[in-house]
Amino acid sequence: MAAPLLSSLCCRHSLRHCSPRRFARNDLSFFRSLSTSISSEKSLVLSHVNEDAGVAILAMNRPPANSLSLELNEAICTSLKEIDTNPKIQSVILASTNPTIFSAGLDVTELISPDDQRLPKFWNSLQQVYIDLYGSRLAIIAAIQGHAPAAGCMLAMACDYRIMYGGGEGSTVDGRKRKSHIPTIGLNETQLGIAAPPWMGQLLVRTIGFRPAERALALGTLFPPMEALIEGLVDDVITEESFSPSADTIHALEKLLPDPIRNQALSLVMQKAFQEAELYAKISPQARVASKLVTRSESLKDMIASREADTEYFCSFICQDTVQKNLKKYVEALKKKSKSK
Ligand SMILES: CCCCC/C=C\C/C=C\CC/C=C/CC(=O)SCCNC(=O)CCNC(=O)[C@H](O)C(C)(C)COP(=O)(O)OP(=O)(O)OC[C@H]1O[C@@H](n2cnc3c(N)ncnc32)[C@H](O)[C@@H]1OP(=O)(O)O
């Protein structure tokens, strides 16, 4: 049933290689077929590979908050595609150059008084980020050193493993002392007066289970690290007390991390992410990818099948007067809060 639907509903531009037959095949080509051919501003992400370890880094680099604009979404897809073409690489660490914000979710300014050509393109680019991460042949490890609300949480959930910084006074998240920083993660859309799109909500359901997700979606809950761990929203929480760095890992990270974020070799989250990435990289790729297909292919097919309808709904929803009013108020409050610091 899903296959003919899929071919008719696949987005013309980004999914043109995604034939139903490929979907049925239990091999790497399924994941490769989901890649895009979008061009991008490279500096919005920093990426680098350590071929000896089979690990790559993809660090979002859009100050101040890594909020997801059309261009950042495209840059993530392009960078992931480049990494994907390197057969020596099996794992990627998805990270942020900002040590206190993983990603603030959608760039809410994209949603206010939107341009009617750009808005669907923007939404399409977010869908593509999800498809490319969730359907990647690569094992993707989220190194969540800072806040990850809404679509920031979606990015993390689309990865294979999530490691979050536990926070604390005088912590050394990037090797420098800083004041207390407790990050949070969750789908907080209802707090903005909007609902998470169905595929994002379903991703939360698959990650933490039906009832906890139902409640978290309704309340727009942002979980601090230990609560996120208990709910299963993250797989590991790292604190100075719980993790001891190893000289070998720091050395390998120094080889992997590009110049502007080389000091993150001292980040415990980054160190644990690297160890996890190495672990995944040692598994037979065929076997690992086949096992990923078991849990992900059906929901991806469903999401792709409803992609155009999702975009249409999103655009008409965002353009409603009441939604625009709520979003404007939200952005004003955000800016006021930031100024008052
Ligand atoms: C029946 C079917 C229903 C179907 C529904 C279908 C479609 C659904 C329709 C819509 C769905 C839309 C989906 C949305 C998902 C999203 O991702 S919405 C975005 C949600 N994000 C947030 O709410 C996060 C907001 N930001 C924060 O809470 C904080 O900034 C932070 C991340 C916790 C960090 O705090 P911190 O104190 O460190 O930093 P500041 O607050 O000072 O921020 C610094 C700087 O960054 C700017 N900024 C922060 N977040 C955003 C953002 N999301 N977009 C744009 N800009 C952001 C902030 O304004 C500051 O900038 P400055 O003022 O220039 O200093």
Automatic annotation (TrEMBL):
Q: Which InterPro entries match?
A: ClpP/crotonase-like_dom_sf, Enoyl-CoA_hyd/isom_CS, Enoyl-CoA_hydra/iso
Location within or outside the cell: Mitochondrion matrix
Q: Does the keyword Metal-binding apply?
A: no
Q: Which domain of life is it from?
A: Eukaryota
The reaction(s) this protein catalyses: (2E)-tetradecenoyl-CoA = (3Z)-tetradecenoyl-CoA; (3Z)-octenoyl-CoA = (2E)-octenoyl-CoA; (3Z)-dodecenoyl-CoA = (2E)-dodecenoyl-CoA; (3Z)-decenoyl-CoA = (2E)-decenoyl-CoA
Which key words are in the record?
Answer: Acetylation, Fatty acid metabolism, Isomerase, Lipid metabolism, Mitochondrion, Transit peptide
Q: Which PROSITE patterns match?
A: ENOYL_COA_HYDRATASE
Q: Which GO terms describe its molecular function?
A: delta(3)-delta(2)-enoyl-CoA isomerase activity
Gene Ontology CC entries for this record: mitochondrial matrix
The processes (GO biological process) annotated in the record are: fatty acid metabolic process
Q: Which one Pfam family would you cite for this protein?
A: ECH_1
Oligomer and partners = Homotrimer.
Please state which protein family the record places this protein in. Belongs to the enoyl-CoA hydratase/isomerase family.
- The molecule here is called Enoyl-CoA delta isomerase 1, mitochondrial
Q: Which organism is it from?
A: Cyclotella cryptica
